[in-house]
Amino acid sequence: MWIYEKRLEFPVNIKEPNAQMAQFIMSQYGGPDGEMGASMRYLSQRYAMPYKECKGTLTDIGTEELAHLEIVAAIIHQLTKGLTADQLVEQGFGPYYIDHTTGIWPQAAGGIPFNACEFQSKGDVITDLHEDMAAEQKARSTYDNILRVVKDYDVCEPIKFLREREVVHYQRFGELLRITQEKLDSRNFYAFNPAFDVPAPSCQDQMRQM
């Protein structure tokens, strides 16, 4: 159960609409490294996590990613609000407009729709945490790319905030990886089968057993 606070985690107040900019930022709503995939990733992975403190962090970050999804949606909405159909087409938003008008719908900047294949929930905690760290770095890289092409201050400020949170989440997942490895009996990379790290018997050993 979540308690919804009726304000954005970071304010979005865009004065100048720009549909082309909205198309770029759309990727962080439903793209391969966007906030929708992030929230679903962590809120799904938490069920396989056996350690209470780590499960709590996955829940916290997954919940925050939902808040980030809302920020991105607000940016896209404000960047397209009030534009005519002709203006949207002129600014490269025509294909999206035909399918969705200016409603918010999850897709990448290139138009590929969101699907669950864009995030992993493997059930092995070490595998999942490496996935999470990589995901945060990929999201950070996407925000870097957005900041290279977007110059509007009103858009850049919330994007910078979102980028900073990706860095923090990466660090938190690094902490969880350390905690998890310390709790595993052999401190190895296999949560459910430490026997994988036992050296295989040599040919001579096998001959002796015959």
UniProtKB/TrEMBL annotation:
Ca(2+) binds at residue 60. Mn(2+) binds at residues 35, 65, 68, 136, 169. InterPro entries: Ferritin-like (IPR012347), Ferritin-like_SF (IPR009078), Mn_catalase (IPR007760). It is an enzyme of class 1 (oxidoreductase). SUPFAM superfamilies: Ferritin-like. Its cofactor is Ca(2+); Mn(2+). Binds 1 Ca(2+) ion per subunit. Keywords: Calcium, Manganese, Metal-binding, Oxidoreductase, Peroxidase. Pfam families: Mn_catalase. One of its GO terms (molecular function) is catalase activity. Its EC number is 1.11.1.6. Belongs to the manganese catalase family. This is Manganese containing catalase. It comes from Enterocloster clostridioformis.
